[in-house]
Amino acid sequence: MGQENRRSSRLLxxxxxxxxxxxxxxxxxxxxxxxxxxxxxxxxxxxxxxFVNEGVALERSLVIPPLLDGRVVNGEKVFELTARHGxxxxxxxxxxxxxxxxxxxxxxxxxxxxxxRVRVDVKNELGETTTVHWHGMHLPAAMxxxxxxPIPSGDTWSPHWTVRNSAATLWYHPHTLGKTxxxxxxxxxxxxxxxxxxxxxxxxxxxxxxxxxxxxxxxRRFDEGGRLIYVRDRAQHNFGAMGDDILVNGTRGPYxxxxxxxxxLRILNASNARRYNFGFSDDRPFxxxxxxxxxxxxxxxxxxxxxxxGERAEIVVDLSESDQPVTLMSYAxxxxxxxxxLMRAVLSGANDEYQLFKILELRPHPDAPGTGQLSARLxxxxxxxxxxxxxxxxxxxxxxxxxxGKPMDHTRIDExxxxxxxxxxxFDNREALFYHPFHVHNxxxxxxxxxxxxxxxxERGWKDTVIVNPLERVRVIIRFADYADPQLPYMYHCHIxxxxxxxxxxxxxxxxxxxxxxxLDSPLAGTNGSNHGRGE
Length: 536
Ligand code: C2O
Ligand code: CU
Ligand code: CU
What we know:
This protein is about 15% helix and about 40% strand. With about 525 residues, the protein is mostly beta strands. The strands form seven sheets. Strands 13, 14, 15, 16, 18, 20, 21 and 23 form an eight-stranded mixed beta sheet that branches. Strands 1, 2, 17, 19, 22, 24 and 25 form a seven-stranded mixed beta sheet that branches. Strands 3, 4, 5, 7, 9 and 10 form a six-stranded mixed beta sheet that branches.
């Protein structure tokens, strides 16, 4: 009996001990979480933002990507792009291995008018397969330049289409399956500007490189020798490749001489993973005049413009007041969910969204008379109406780099859309700690709401890429007109390029009518009989 008692009391003691350690463990966890949460809220106020490139002088003249001349052949405007590797002096005195179109870093600006027939002969001399995608462009799937239009090294690919977009700042970049992030990072990207009758008439600043300035903004990392490096270490925890240096049009530490007048900046965030909260050093207001896919209905006065990778904004700033230089900056991103900032701060040691950067110094000079003006009315945007939508789709994002639980499979058709149908697409980021910029090929959409709240004025234009913040749900209204192809898909994906490459991408085909079978037939996927989809 005594032995039994002793044994049971020993059992009880060990049980208590186990409970105690459990309590201690739980207490520690809760304590730590609480502390971290408090730290994340206090962090920006105590620590402030880190001025990352404070020591970089803005004293190199901004490179303006050359306009690409096209020649007209049989009523078609033909442009030539050659992708190749090269060496570029990105940092003074140091030559980096880079890649570019018709040059060694970035590519020329293509410019076309709505209604124009264009063809681009894309020659691949990279020594590896690539593709060239026309981001934001409305065009047939076979011309889209996604993963299903690979250009083997040595080949030339000649997509052609009629420009149907309205005036906008679009861009082009590789979209090679699994390799987009590295190829873009190396320098393969360029602008594609579209003009239309409306933009011709408005009188906005539009002299390219003079008062209409393209700004391709990218963060990059360099080694001690000043050479470009691509780092995707695990410590980055799927943040994507980020750098402490900023290049604008490939120029590090840029300034630009401009006239004392209205200056239009066409800003493209062509970074792999960083978003920028643009604003001016003296907090002067500017007017946002365009979103990804074209002009807003009216200028929207702002002091900050947040752009995620893939997004564009056109802004107009008044520099007529004085000769005093003013610097375009990127400020901390505020207002996101605390747990988001917490995660970034804890995982990366330095929250990239609390970082401050100089981007470009603008130096106004009196000797250049102004001509451009800012009209009160810029565009007419026909609103798509939710009551006309025939279908809703939900795209659930997770930080495990999947959409609707599925990582990218280039042999699978994820969605079948009927041509001309109006649909509501909901981007659901409630499971995520990251923000994800959701991009859809081939079309421009309109925002309906963010978490049920109507979009802000500057988001009421045509968009092809939209930030979906952690915990947020964004609904857009969308329509795919003109082109159907049951065999070749378009992509939708997160435009953080590492997320895209890790599988945060899906494929949709546009079909003529619901009875048409979607059936992948692509050089990438092979002819795959097992992947049918049907428009329901
Ligand atoms: Cu800018 Cu699918 O890409
Ligand atoms: Cu795209
Ligand atoms: Cu993402």
